[in-house]
Amino acid sequence: MYMHDNGGTTYVEHDYDGYGEFGGVDYFDLMALMNGMKSRLEAIESYCNNQDDVLYPNLTESSDWQWRNERPERCKVQGYFYDSTN
């Protein structure tokens, strides 16, 4: 799994444990950094409030990815438990 920021950096995660950390970087910490926010909590609030004017990291299965500003969908199982029906 890969997480991409708007500056062209890709964070690689080979063993995702379901806690939002990719390559040692927390998704919401990166989102806060990308938006000049003061805290991870501020990024979480922006995400939960569907704010239009924020930048979102991209989560992909491809290392060859061009970043685009798309809010990821919420995962009902938080991305941790997947089988062929999810």
Write down the secondary-structure element order.
EEEEHHE
Helix content: 10-25%
The overall number of domains is 1
Could you tell me the radius of gyration in angstroms? Answer: 13 Å
Distance between the termini: 17 Å
Q: Mean pLDDT across all residues, rounded?
A: 87
How many helices?
A: 2
Which spans have pLDDT < 50 for at least 5 consecutive residues? none
Question: How many beta-strand segments?
Answer: 5
**Biggest β-sheet description:** 3 strands, antiparallel
Shape: globular
Q: Write out the strand line-up for the largest beta sheet, numbering strands in chain order.
A: 2-1-5
Strand content of the residues, in percent?
Answer: 15-25%
**Alpha-beta content class:** alpha+beta
Explain how this protein is built.
It is a single chain. Helices cover 20% and strands 15% of the residues. It is α+β, with helices and mostly antiparallel strands and 86 residues long. It has one domain (1-86). The strands form two sheets. A three-stranded antiparallel β-sheet has the order 2-1-5, with no helix packed on it. Strands 3-4 form a two-stranded antiparallel sheet. A hairpin with a 5-residue loop joins strand 1 and strand 2. The relative contact order is 0.22.
Task: Provide key terms for this protein.
86 residues, 20% helix, three-stranded antiparallel beta sheet, 2 helices
Write the layout of secondary structure elements.
Layout: E1 2-4, E2 10-12, E3 21-22, E4 25-26, H1 27-34, H2 40-48, E5 58-60
Antiparallel strand pairs: 1-2, 1-5, 3-4
Short structural description:
Helix content is 20%, strand content 15%. It has 86 residues and is α+β, with helices and mostly antiparallel strands. The chain has one domain.
